Amino acid sequence: MTSKKSILIKPLLTEKMVGYKETENKYAFVVERSANKIEIKRAVEERFKVRVSAVNTMNYSGKLKRQGRFEGRRAAWKKAIVSLQKGDEIEIVEGL
Are 33 and 59 in contact (CB under 8 A)? Predict the structure, then answer.
């Protein structure tokens, strides 16, 4: 089991996620690949002092990239969309 501080890597601030934040009270985070939904829920609740109603996760594989004749891969990552209960809010500074 991983430590709760290392589960949440960074918030995802895209146009789509800002829209979700305003309309549906959902927030997205890049999380550790080995973390499960229960660990993510506990980490968000402890770190931001909010109540989480649902967690959805997605795994992304690293894209294949080429530079001339050399080939490599970007890192694989995991995204978690966290739904909060009514009245709860996370203060994330936009423009990081």
Answer: yes
